[in-house]
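Researcher: Sequence of ribonuclease T1 follows. Predict its structure.
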Amino acid sequence: MQYTKLLALATLLTGTLAIPLEKMTRACAYTCGSACYSSSAVSAAQKAGYKLESAGNDDDSYPHEYHDYEGFDFPVSGTYYEFPILSSGEVYDGGSPGADRVIFNGSGELAGVITHTGASGDDFVACDS
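Model: Prediction complete. Tokens:
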């Protein structure tokens, strides 16, 4: 009798927790094309880019100033900088930057996440949030 109740409780808990746990591990704060980025991945890329920019990065690599030719309505004021965010989950440290970028301002505030995926030419489009 005790075993049956325990088994029923375990089944109930497993069934009710399975969906929220899956959503937590697969939660996309931003989706760029088919790439899913968690809020922690976005934050890590933003912080890494801001740290480099604050250190006086002045070469042609990342981060570099983003001119917003597309006219996005960012929630923070610029000057804006772009830094790659990688679908592998790693923080960018050189090489191919991929299609996706975090945009932040000179105060390190997140402006948004954008991608070349689905854009014309060398333009960007906003990632879904």
